[in-house]
From TrEMBL, chains A, B:
<comment type="subunit">
    <text>Homodimer. The monomeric form is inactive while the homodimer is active.</text>
</comment>
<feature type="signal peptide">
    <location>
        <begin position="1"/>
        <end position="21"/>
    </location>
</feature>
<feature type="domain" description="Peptidase M28">
    <location>
        <begin position="243"/>
        <end position="425"/>
    </location>
</feature>
<dbReference type="Pfam" id="PF04389">
    <property type="entry name" value="Peptidase_M28"/>
</dbReference>
<dbReference type="InterPro" id="IPR007484">
    <property type="entry name" value="Peptidase_M28"/>
</dbReference>
<keyword id="KW-0482">Metalloprotease</keyword>
<keyword id="KW-0862">Zinc</keyword>
<keyword id="KW-0479">Metal-binding</keyword>
<keyword id="KW-0121">Carboxypeptidase</keyword>
<dbReference type="InterPro" id="IPR039866">
    <property type="entry name" value="CPQ"/>
</dbReference>
<keyword id="KW-0964">Secreted</keyword>
<keyword id="KW-0645">Protease</keyword>
<feature type="region of interest" description="Disordered">
    <location>
        <begin position="182"/>
        <end position="201"/>
    </location>
</feature>
<keyword id="KW-0378">Hydrolase</keyword>
<keyword id="KW-0732">Signal</keyword>
<keyword id="KW-0865">Zymogen</keyword>
<keyword id="KW-0458">Lysosome</keyword>
């Protein structure tokens, strides 16, 4: 493709003086992943860094030959991180590895101090009498285990999403949870929590698994535990955020496009390599590869969404703004490990069979679950009742790294990243060349 | 053994109200390991915590039936940790995972700021012209890889031990090294450094491997790197430390004892589980197990040394104080992974053959290197020209955890810990029952 080659040449020129993470072999996915994590770094929703990421993304997508590249601004309620510290005061002094959760309440600079009440599960917390946690700090444990499909995150993730609000409802002065994660490193897992209207936000943090093990060990002994919790960050309204979109136009611009989603923002403890620079790298490289050997019939659009991590703001903003019809949506937001399964929400059984057959030589199996896309494309899927193809990545180790300081470039295996791009390319070559209507399952 | 059984019963009584880390199955090694890491926690040389550890150790050894249990005090030059922070200021803002090295120079509270000069190796730093680092911060990279015998630590560890002094000699205002470690987590590896007399101590820190990867990536691009380095800890003289020793008397108290060493102190980022609570647990459990089936001929003495981490103070103090003859020395200070090899420094070939034969059914091979004990027993070995048996542990993953926040209880596999105890017990049953003189190789 002449345009593509020209675009690549242009990239080299444009970025020779500014980029330092480009692969000399010209691997688009790796370049995007290394660039976003190394030339921008962490990209907290609503931050100056996320704004730099939009500038970077716009330039890269243009350089790669995308057209109609646009930054679409919106505003969000964000969380500005402060100083995160937690220390056991009794029975032994010990500095814990802690992170504030997004939308945590704010402690004074010297922190809050109180006795810890240990709850082995979220249900145990729910069963605590009203008012029983007054002046106390709740600790919520749980038993998440690793699964290939990541299915532990839904139920055990409720400890993070709902636990703080429930503890607040029982008058706790603060809350600490065992990180929603499957590793054994002293790296806590952050993530958003949720204080519904009428519930007082209280300071809410997560400690690493080894720290939670120690707390559980002490709790089993019946010894009183005292804790200082210092989380000085602040929930802040009206911060700037935005989506970045770009098109690779099809041969028939009148046909609704294929929409590919990922998110540009990340948590701030690491550099957001697996969550979700990898997703943006995969969909973008595959969209370009699908042009090789002949421009597809339909336009392929990439959506690099903003502020996914704090409530899916980007996906909602896109659905609101883009009422033009779409053909089908897909998303990559589950790391960079190999695609192991394909699932569908599609009326045309023959089309799904063709896609599954194209992926089968790669060892990708067909699942019987219903595809749902991901946070950044779900609002438009819901609104327009779009067909969906999910390429499920192996999540066995995803929650070792998810939302931790360890989410960095070195965690991505270039061969697995390339397998993702290859699988996405196979799917795009089929769906973007499908002339007839593409509809969701009835 | 009646005494041993009584001692165990006594332990249960004594600690029912104070200990919370005891295994109901009564596994001595696991109890000691869990207790020291959970009931005392980190044990920095010269700290209040190390003093608590001595009290704890004395009580535990007495409760386990050791006699002549003694705390032998000494004073050290220590390092009192402050606030450790480092942030890239250019080309992108990024907060690094950093730790001060022991004996680091002290920065102001607001840190020092300067341009980073990247050195791929220690030799590259050595080759820098005198004065060339004035006003700059040196970054020293290296290429340590994992080896079963841990042999990378000697040469690459020089980056930590000597690098800061060499950078100071070239007028650097500060120095940061890639952690001496083999993992890919955002957990830096601390450890002591050394500023010889006449060399000005400068602030010296280590960043995690993923952070070092990022710095190396930027350095390859030629872009200037600016860094703020804040390490407010202080080298402090005359801090209290001490050794704890205890004996299990042999049938013939006139024979020189077998000396078993480990160290009680630890770095403060984790809880010192593999370095070196595990060592103390292993030697102590094995000393007790060697009593089963008949009290050995020779006394077995355990030395839980203090302040190993900052210069082997405990081992030196022991050698100075204990001029009485010893028969043989051994040490456990390389984690808790399985013993894979035995090596000797022993004149009596027949005795070494018997030991190697006893270990062979456990899959333990015989090495041809010369046993040297470890930091805590080396001074007495040198002084008295003692025979030595080394039971080498598998170090493949040791430097993933060594001196990091990740050195916590969950990293120890109880089955591997038990294999260590079993291997040590085999050796002790032979050497502690050897009537004839036990001598080092000539
Ligand atoms: Zn995500
Ligand atoms: Zn996320
Ligand atoms: Zn050690
Ligand atoms: Zn050590």
């Amino acid at each position: 493709m002449r345009n593509h080659a020209r675009a690549l040449a242009l990239t080299a020129t444009l970025f020779a003086s500014t980029a330092y993470a480009q692969d000399p072999k010209g691997d688009v996915a790796w370049d995007l992943l290394a660039g976003l994590t190394s030339e921008v770094g962490p990209r907290l929703p609503g931050s100056e860094a996320e704004a730099r990421a939009r500038v970077w993304a716009e330039a890269r997508l243009k350089a790669l030959g995308f057209s109609k590249v646009a930054v679409e601004d919106f505003r969000i309620r964000g969380y500005v991180r402060g100083r995160d510290e937690a220390s056991l005061l009794a029975p032994i002094p010990f500095r814990l590895a802690v992170t504030a959760l997004g939308y945590s309440g704010t402690t004074p600079d010297t922190g809050i101090e109180g006795e810890v009440v240990y709850f082995p599960t979220l249900d145990a917390l729910k069963a605590a009498p009203a008012g029983s946690l007054a002046g106390k700090i709740a600790f919520i444990d749980h038993a998440m285990k690793r699964n290939q499909d990541g299915s532990g995150y839904g139920p055990y993730g409720q400890v993070r999403r709902q636990g703080p609000a429930i503890a607040s409802g029982k008058s706790a002065m603060g809350v600490v949870i065992r990180s929603i994660g499957t590793d054994s490193h002293r790296n806590p897992h952050t993530g958003g929590t949720n204080f519904p209207d009428g519930v007082k936000p209280i300071p809410a943090g997560a400690v690493s698994n080894p720290d939670a093990d120690l707390i559980a060990r002490i709790a089993r002994s019946g010894k009183p535990i005292r804790l200082n919790l210092t989380l000085t960050g602040k929930t802040t309204d009206n911060l700037p955020s935005g989506n970045v979109i770009g098109d690779l136009p099809g041969r028939d611009p009148s046909l609704p496009p294929i929409l590919l989603g990922c998110h540009l923002d990340s948590w701030d403890l690491g550099t957001g390599a697996i969550d979700d620079a990898a997703g943006c790298a995969i969909i973008t490289a595959a969209a370009l590869k699908a042009q090789e050997g002949g421009k597809p019939l339909r336009t392929i659009r990439v959506l690099w969404a903003g502020s996914e991590e704090l409530g899916g703001f980007g996906g909602k903003a896109y659905a609101e703004k883009h009422s033009e019809p779409h053909a089908l949506a897909m998303e990559s937001d589950f790391g960079a490990a190999r695609v192991w399964r394909v699932q569908f929400n599609m009326a045309d059984k023959a089309l799904t069979d063709r896609i599954a057959a194209a992926l089968s030589p790669m060892g990708i199996v067909r699942g019987s679950g219903k595809a749902d896309g991901g946070t950044d494309v779900e609002p438009v899927i819901e609104k327009q009742k779009l067909a969906v193809v999910d390429l499920n990545q192996d999540g066995t180790h995803y929650f070792d790294l998810h939302h931790t300081p360890d989410d960095t470039l070195d965690k991505v295996d270039p061969a697995e990243l390339a397998q993702n791009v290859a699988a996405w390319t196979e799917v795009l070559k089929i769906v973007a060349n499908e002339a007839g209507p593409i509809a969701a399952a009835p």
